[in-house]
Known about the structure:
The chain is α/β, with parallel strands linked by helices. Helix 2 crosses helix 3 (64-79) and helix 10 crosses helix 17.
Amino acid sequence: MDDYGTFLAGKVFDDRPTGFDFDIPDHALTNGGSRRLFPHQLALVKWALRRGRAAVFADTGLGKTAIEVSWAWSVFQHTGNRVLILAPLCVAPQTVAEAALFGIPVTYVREFKRDGSTGIFITNYEMLEQFEDAIREGYFDGVVLDESSILKSQDSKTRTRLIQVCKSIPYRLSCTATPAPNDFQELGNQAEFLGILSQAEMLACFFTHNTAQLADNDKAKWRLKGHAKTRFWEWMSHWAAFIRKPSDLGFDDAGYNLPELLIAERVVVTGKPVASTLSERLQARRESIDVRVKECAALVNGSSEPFVVWCNLNEESDKLAAAIPGAIEVRGSMSIQAKEEAIRAFQSGEARVIVTKPSITGFGLNWQHCARMAFVGLNDSYEDLYQAIRRCYRFGQARPVEVTLITADSEGAVRENIKRKERQAEELASSMILHMREFCRREVTQASQQRGTYRRDVAGGQDWTLILGDCVDVARELPDESVGFSVFSPPFASLFTYSNLDRDMGNSRNHAEFFNHFGFLIRELFRVTQSGRNVSVHCAPLPATKSWDGFIGVRDFRGQLIRLFEAAGFHLHSEVTVWKDPVVAMQRTKAIGLLWKQIKKNSAMSRQGFPDYVVTFRKPGEALKPIAHTAEEFPVRLWQELASPCWMDIKQSNTLNRKLAREENDERHICPLQLDLIERLCFLWSSPGDLVFSPFTGIGSEGYVATAMGRRFIGAELKPSYFEIAKQNLAQAPREGYQFPRFQKAVGRWSRDAAREPLATVTHIDPDPAQIDWLALPGASA
């Protein structure tokens, strides 16, 4: 495999398994325990062990604890080294007890002791600092994140520490019921923890949003690129299993059908106006504490059932504990031992009512003995609400679960926000199940995977040849010094992705990979360009985002291209700025930096609109075929126009029809160059009869203009739908009397040289394109 083939192989999103096969016979771990793994649990454990680094996104009650401890025991048996389980506060004792049912010894510790002991250890996330040095020194070969949605916050110190500390551990397992409650972006944290892709790389590969808005505030929501929908879910299924019930993996759902969930809302009347801003909602919540507590106390005191009462404020907790006889509190200021003792008392039935916060006990605990709960107010976190409800409403619950949401009429904005997030979460979860079900089944059961294929084709006319294929491959097949002029607009890093092929430069996981890929083409352009001739590249500034670049601002894409071309041997020859209307950009993108209201708010965030640039590079050496113009066809006023460093009159809408090439899954990246822009470049830097090359042909704009101006054209296009439209456009290009439209008086009129030998027309290409001599073009070489 040559260098380019090796590079492409490295772009394939195929995180190969790094684990091992481990035999767990008879659907059970043979350690003398009284419990057995269910079939879906056994399949997930074996799959996660084969993967080495995997995520299990299983809904509450599907046995994540059994999966975690079984996986950890298998890693310990395989390596003989320690495995660390990290869990939310107060979950560790519960995990130790459940592991014992499988005959698996798990030791609860709060600090690491170098006493030579091995096995499985569990601690709270809050104690991670006590284990960091030991992890870095290789004392642990495996780590499990229980309720790994703790990774969700991009700016979280815990997230960053977990990813950095655990990256050297060879075997990693991430488990949660809510990997991304209502935001795709959170899945990137899971991938980054497991060492699959960083969050920024995942977003660059599969997602998109309004890039102009990102340049200002980085707050626009990411969404899957149209053509990436299936590819993204298949990629995820390699390292993550998402299930809501065993049948999602093809197993029997017997015993996993949940009882009814009954959610009732009680809105107490305060007479206050409905809050809208965050500060107003906090104030409304505090002002309504007494009436909400009174409503809840009446509900709980009128029942003899075990009851969980959820709150968010310490004052709420104090008043609820006072108003409900026998209620015990779990609050943040308590010691770990006191919290564990209170939770044990509630689980054992010693205490009927527990008052607590979702942020403290809302994750990981099993409270199926209780089927009644009340929320005395809500915050804006849907995940907190979902997880808190799932402490009781989970597989193993035998009775209908009744949930009462007690809010004040002045908190309406909070209720609506939660409902909106609930809809988003349901849509995301349903989408994940719908798309990943078959992929997960194949992955977990080791069925074969299928991949897309890369194909080649060729079409041509009297003076043009169009190749469906990788532009690097096409350029490598061109003869040395055969191209008189190249003009094109490359993919702008990963912002404009044309297909789902790894050969697409836009499918790059970061800037470095894009420029590495682009470098292969630039080196070939240097070889095929005639000495003393030029290459013109259309480009623009790129918005820098916090999630990808680490800051909010602008990336100098133009400057990076200049450095890349110069490194290949080109000289920077010329550049022109193409004016674009900032009002149009503002209306189209709603970019904060372009809005007039931002001037009044904080003009430090205001900015100018982005122009386009055309940067032209020259290959060193003496041109054997100079480009000569007569004074008649190139009058001084035309030169004065073209010599300007800023072209103010390029009509942005003067393009070929792009709609015909647009597919259902296409994004906004169909951006053909303006015809008058191409005309000026071809007129200035090529002669009739020259061979013009575009490695990113798109719908054929460069070839349309070049052939109309009496040049010959070769283009490469990777996307089949663009290839088909480009064929039509090239075949319909005007052949006589083409005029430079910038001037009313006819100047720059071209006609073909009838005596010039035409290019051969090729309608089919064999599997080995190197065996076809369609590149031996008359007059193409120096």
